[in-house]
Amino acid sequence: MTGLHHRHLAVSPDWLALYYRHPLEITHGEGRHVWDADGKRYLDFFGGILTTMTAHALPEVTKAVTEQAGRIIHSSTLYLNRPMVDLAERVVSLSGIPDARVFFTTSGTEANDTALLLATAYRRSNQILAMRNSYHGRSFSAVSVTGNHAWSPTGLSPLQTLYVHGGVRGRGPYAHLGDEEFIEACVADLEDLLGHTRDAAALIAEPIQGVGGFTSPPDGLYAAFREVLDRHGILWISDEVQTGWGRTGEHFWGWQAHGQSGPPDIVTFAKGIGNGMSIGGVIARADVMNCLDSNSISTFGGSPVTMAAGLANLSYLLEHDLQGNARRVGGLLIERLRAVAAGSECVREVRGRGLMIGIELVKPGTDEANPEAAAAVLEAAREGGLLIGKGGGHNTSVLRIAPPLSLSIPEAEEGAAILADALQAAG
Predict the structure, then answer these.
(1) Which among 255, 271, 283 is positioned nearest to 310, based on CA atoms?
(2) Exposed, middle or buried: residue 249 (CB in 10 Å: 0-12, 13-18, 19+)?
(3) How far is CA 203 from CA 72, 143, 164, 233, in A?
(4) pLDDT digits 0-9 by tens, 383-397
(5) How far apart are CA 405 and CA 317, in angstroms?
(6) Is the pLDDT of residue 257 over 80?
(7) What phi and psi values does residue 56 have, to the nearest 5 degrees?
């Protein structure tokens, strides 16, 4: 155990998880690579949990942060804030929501917490629909709508939450159905559920479930849900904390794969927009955003420094078509990984879109989750110079791959080769 690890254990909660048998201290990064305290270089395929969206030490973002910090670091939302207004205007124009308003927070958890506050106040209901296998953050309200036991430490809740089928295509009672029949069955389940309960405030859903192992329904499920929700006046909250800003390659927002019935009423975002700086936020149409009948502010949401970082990062992403790069390089990477997986008895499925890819591991010859193999591959990949993540629903048995969106083809090939060796080493 290193001295820093020992000090960490002495002052941190027992439930504050660390990756790896010998935890890693990352000291600096550049592009798609990071270095540890021993000077070893790693190809980063996890980006600080999908947060380093463009690149480590991106000069444009570093310059924007430095220049803004030299002027003023903090003021709060009680004062006019030019960087915040500038970024809000960009976000509104990209949102797809008519007459939208933006409220900035410091994290995705806080963004989802705010969305739940807005929805319950607007609808005067504390009942929320959420997806099984979902994850929405670690606040009291966000935990209460998280459909993943491993990340929900209490059954107490300020909300009444009902869980809907559909977030996981490849497992569960409808997995054997074709896509159209799957959607029909999930819609019928939603209709039936609404017939047994009081008026709900909103459905909150990740277009692709992040912590749940990069699972997703067939395209169009949430559009079909939206038709049902609209009949009941129920709002749709799309949690884009992990799927936003072009990561899926095919779309700028994850909800656009389900946009046939119109955009969500509320979108939440965070992670990648700040490229490591602490930014979250909520986009909602004006009548929903303005429904609160008491004062509210944010001390740290919309900080001039983080807003400057977000503006620079978003500009870089759009000017360099990183969504297109995620589509092209991500498509190549997922095909390479599927070829690798074909030679492994431990791999059940390789799934995902763009640069958001999951590899689900099972015990050979079964359909049973294999968290031990996932942990072993994580360790072997690190030894080979690659950082990845892990997740999953009933058990943590999915490797999560989400590099910065500027990933090059040679880097994708290198990462796939390291993963092939790691899968072989782990059995």
Answers:
(1) 271
(2) buried
(3) 39, 15, 9, 11
(4) 999 999 999 987 889
(5) 8
(6) yes
(7) -70, 140
